Amino acid sequence: MQRSESCPSCDGNDWLPLPGWSRSAMLSDGRFLEAQLNKEHCRDCRLVRHVSPPSKDQLEAIFKEGYELYAHPAGDSFEMQRQRRYADWILALIGARPVETVFEIGAGNGSFLTELHRRMPDWRLKGLEPSPIAAGHARESGFDIQTGLLQDIDVSGADADIVLAINVVEHAHDPTAFLSHAVTAVADNGCLIVVCPDGERPSSELLVYDHLHSFTALAIDNIARKAGLTITQRVIAPVSLGPFQALLLRRSSEADESARIGAPAQGLYEWRYRFLLAWHQLDSALVQRIESAGGNVWAFGGGESAQMLRTYAPETWSRVAGVLSDVPGSFDRQPVRIYGPSTDGQPRTLLLAVRPEIQGAVANRLTHDGNKVVQWDDLILGG
Ligand SMILES: [Zn+2]
Hints:
Keywords: Methyltransferase, Transferase. The protein is built from 11 helices and 20 strands.
């Protein structure tokens, strides 16, 4: 079904199609969904949106039932390593602001709040989370967490110096309403920190079914203004975290006549198009690479990139014997094997299942250990 609504950012209605998938899509927790994934690009502000997004009810069901990203207690080593990096980044952004209370929208299992508490034991930490299982884990860790979606909960009593929404706004049907609602939790002189994928460069977020919008700097600036907010700072995440942006927002005042963010660089549509086309062509290219490498094929990495390969390179994935990783964890409910030297004397081929941006470094290490390595960063980042 084609949508008729105008762009939620610039109100334009000039959309350019992006390559999509008719029957396979990945949810942000890695689950496979047999659904149509088609996105389109706003010619004016370069926002990306779904052509046929899940309904509000479907979206609520995704988050309230069976959402697996945080359906476990906080504390596994991969997750906590990531939260330490997030904490480094966000604490630097908060800087010397006086803080008593932090409120996190989409607190998951409380793993980020756990790390924040370790660093800042005097801060009062609370939040909300739609998944009852994840919210339960966060409460077990000692945090005051309400269960529900932001749109259904009155958060105006939170009175928080810092309100955080880390990787949440891209899931919202109405991002302006999301920001308007989120800011009601902010105390008078407080601020809202929103982290989301950086829409200025194409990345795997375009392949995530429940990411309903991708935001360029201009697109999120328009949306913030509609919500009565001013972006006072926009920073890009360190490479170790991936392609994300953080925005520091506060309620607009009369004095805010800040310059509008300029139009993004030309060529973003073509860049996004090439990126998605490369994902379309990845499966057949990887099958060829695996066949010419020979040997038993194992995937190296059990995170989001492995889930992406399983969804969007299924023929390749069907040839993988199992998943190896440096850190304990599970993939498809099976424990991953901890990476070590090959023990059976058979030649071993490792298909990299890590982000393209870090494949070069990982490949060097694994090749040095005597493995044959199949990487695909050139295919995805080549454009
Ligand atoms: Zn637009």
